[in-house]
Amino acid sequence: MTFHRNGAIQISEAANRLMDPVLARKAGINTALIGSWDEIVGTDFADCTRPEKITWPRRNSEMAGEEARVEPGVLTIACEGARALFLAHAQGELIQRINGFFGYPAIRQVRIVQKPVAVQQKYRRKPKPLNAAENAKLSSMTGEIEHEALKQALDRLGRAIIGRTKR
């Protein structure tokens, strides 16, 4: 869904336009596949897998001057630990789901690579408590805001910024 008003577009649409050519060139996949991955693989494998790349075979027909056909490729999937065994057993169904997503037989084989999938969260230190002067300054900055949720959010942001420890 696009929203155009006076030349404005959604940020997600702009990001997809930027990312799709890069992903297609580097990994042979697009943002639609990555964004829909959870629905394609289902709840059993959504949390422990991610698509890495699609390796497309060389097109010998183009070199011979024949009609161009799309040859199915090999999808490389990153999977965590022992879940790769279960994914290998569900490989046939997974290929059917992926080809159903594309609307044509795009994948002929799945290659499973064991590696960590979850992004590790960076540990953040808690901000130091504010002294009386810093508290008063922050209260004076947010005191006139009437919208309570906005006021609380700005207060949290102010505490995080003022309370940052200098390195």
From TrEMBL:
InterPro entries for this protein: DciA-like, DUF1159
Any Pfam family the entry gives: DciA
Protein name: DUF721 domain-containing protein
Species name: Rhizobium alvei
